Amino acid sequence: MVETKSSEVFSPEEKKAMRARAKELKLAADKGNDAAANDEAVAKLPDDERELAERIRAMVVAAAPQLDPKTYYGFPAWARDGKVVCFFKPKSKFKVRYSTFEFDTAASLDDGAVWATAFAVHNEMTEDDLAMLAALVTKAAG
Predict the structure, then answer these.
(1) What is the β-pairing status of strands 83-89 and 68-72?
(2) Helix axes 31-43, 12-27, angle to 10 degrees
(3) How distant, in Å, are the alpha carbons of 5, 18, 36, 44, 118 from that of 83?
(4) 53-105 pLDDT tens trace
(5) Domain 10-141 class?
(6) Which of 27, 106, 114, 119 could form a disulfide with 33 if both were Cys (CB 3.0 to 4.6 A apart)?
């Protein structure tokens, strides 16, 4: 068996996300901190991603105002009873081609044997695109 160092297993971006998650867990006791962390996560994004994140946030708040804003691995996220339901993952976080809007396991989206849990999102989303996501957020929020 060949042993590898943990530094060879995780990329710098993954390590940064894990550190962010550890910090989030420490701050989780205070919902005021969660909302501020969500705002800060959006504010730190590059202009194009910040615009997209703000559209996503407005859609989530309108579709499911009962969800609490927080962060999840440094991403803007929304939770029910402390469990993440959905989150926005900016493309710059892992240097990939597109951002995503995703649903976590607390989302109530089960529909048959197969259902979508992540969607590639772009600044060119239409109102119809946002409405489709909003319907899913409403369902996921339970």
Answers:
(1) unpaired
(2) 150
(3) 32, 17, 17, 23, 17
(4) 999 999 999 999 999 999 999 999 999 999 999 999 999 999 999 999 999 99
(5) alpha beta
(6) 27
